[in-house]
Design the sequence.
């Protein structure tokens, strides 16, 4: 799997899909493959992505090689071009030798894929997963923030200063819903942790798109940066005030851990 796959014709794709589909043995697996194939075909651009679901189930070693080699090469914004989604799908649905394959993802060219490996490795080997997440939390931008968020969900207070930086919004993130989803997950984590610790709920400043059911984000970079700084300074002060008394907790984590999904 790789960039050369994109040169395949539509006929090649249909034949490739037919061969893969015929290799499946049960009606259920064929139904699952059909759904995800159609879904990913609409969303992603390369033949590698279109066939990725079936490889995850049937030949995870090939899927890993695709991810390690850089599933988002030659694109400026990996999260919008599939590496976050495709990698997370692999972490969730890989069924064989999970610890081995997830560990291999830690050397991927793509920072999102490296974090995927660490996030899902915690389900198989918590010690190794946590150690990898601490290293990856140093990554700039949202990949590092995602690693820090995962650590905080496991109760790792040392990761919170890095996590707080997700409140800040760069010029390339101001209209990126995935970035604001990480911010919302931070807010939910602190809210649940405050309740568990009998601490007054944080009352952050109104942030457009985060505390409303609005379907669009900031109109420009400047408004996003201003709102991000307000959110960052609020939670920085709130955390410094309560860090010694709070217990970080994600009430959904046990159920998600059982299902091995982030």
Sequence:
């Amino acid at each position: 799997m790789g960039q050369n796959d994109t040169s395949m014709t539509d006929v090649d794709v249909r034949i490739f899909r037919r061969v893969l589909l015929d290799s499946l043995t049960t009606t259920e697996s064929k139904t699952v493959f059909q759904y995800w194939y159609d879904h990913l075909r609409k969303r992603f651009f390369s033949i590698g992505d279109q066939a990725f679901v079936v490889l995850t189930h049937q030949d995870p070693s090939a899927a890993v090689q695709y991810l390690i080699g850089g599933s988002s090469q030659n694109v400026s914004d990996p999260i919008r071009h599939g590496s976050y989604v495709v990698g997370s799908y692999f972490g969730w649905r890989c069924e064989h030798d999970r610890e081995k394959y997830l560990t291999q993802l830690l050397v991927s060219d793509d920072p999102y894929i490296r974090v995927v490996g660490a996030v899902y490795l915690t389900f198989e080997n918590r010690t190794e997963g946590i150690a990898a997440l601490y290293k990856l939390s140093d990554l700039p931008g949202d990949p590092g923030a995602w690693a820090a968020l995962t650590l905080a969900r496991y109760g790792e207070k040392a990761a919170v200063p890095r996590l707080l930086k997700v409140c800040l919004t760069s010029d390339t993130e101001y209209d990126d819903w995935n970035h604001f989803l990480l911010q919302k997950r931070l807010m939910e984590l602190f809210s649940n942790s405050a309740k568990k610790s009998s601490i007054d709920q944080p009352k952050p400043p109104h942030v457009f798109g985060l505390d409303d059911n609005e379907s669009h984000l900031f109109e420009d970079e400047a408004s996003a940066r201003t709102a991000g700084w307000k959110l960052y300074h609020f939670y920085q002060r709130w955390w410094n005030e309560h860090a010694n008394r709070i217990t970080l907790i994600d009430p959904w984590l046990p159920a998600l851990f059982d299902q091995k999904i982030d």
DSSP finds 14 helices and no strands in the chain. The two ends are 26 Å apart (CA to CA). The chain has two domains: 1-136, 165-262.
